[in-house]
Amino acid sequence: MPGLIRRTLLIGGAAAVAAGGVALWRRGQSATEITYGSDPRQVMDVTLPAGNGPHPVLMMIHGGAFKIGDKSEMTIWPDLTQAGIAVVRINYRLSGTAKWPAQGEDCLAAVVHLQREGMALGLDPARLVLLGQSAGAFLAVSTALSLVEVGLRPRGVVSLFGPMDFSTMDQDMATLGRTPAMGATDPADSAESELLGYAVGENRAAARGVGPIGRLSRLQEPLPPILIRHGDADPLIADLQAKRLREAWIAADPRAEVDYKLVPGAGHGGTEFETDPVKAEVMAFLQKTLA
Asked: Are 164 and 245 contacting, i.e. CB atoms less than 8 angstroms apart?
């Protein structure tokens, strides 16, 4: 995937970034549907705040076990546009029709499109934070690492209750004394195995290598700030996955800013992640990193 972004982003994106402060837009809040590829799933929508642009960007990536879901399921808080932040929500190819790394390539292609066309859309692609929930958190963190690898570090990452190392998901649930509500990860029929095209339990090293934890163990570059939130009663993905992400982020870059908390009593998503204190903490993180 770094090869993809080197070939495309560095050609068209650098000019867009360099021009970031040249033009100004004045638009009311609106949502615009945009295609970033030829597949029907390769679409995004852009919601602009009122006022002068170009605006900093929050890219939101939906969850759904990599096999279902839609960008429309990601709530756009009014607080975001009121703070002058543009929101981009993306769809990506699902595992039923395309195996990994198609989903990661789609997220990168969406970033490439923003880098090339962002200025025309009223966006400042140089000020980008990636946010994902569940499977979308896996993709948001993965995309951030791909950008880091080519020297185009985003301003920040928000990881909400996502899987980060497929190879340890069953172990982590067992450590907490829980039975995963959607079944084990290791078998061939799990969502993670279906994404990869092989049973996680039969090729644990490869499954670890494609995820953020495995990639962080091989990365030696400055990392962006990251905010990590995970429910401590999550019945689908053990909160130990969030702890692993925190530890791997710090190990890869001891100077990186890591804001890590477990959400007491919270499950896999839900109102706890849409209201204070989590909402306020996310907003504070975004306003700081996108300033």
From this structure: yes
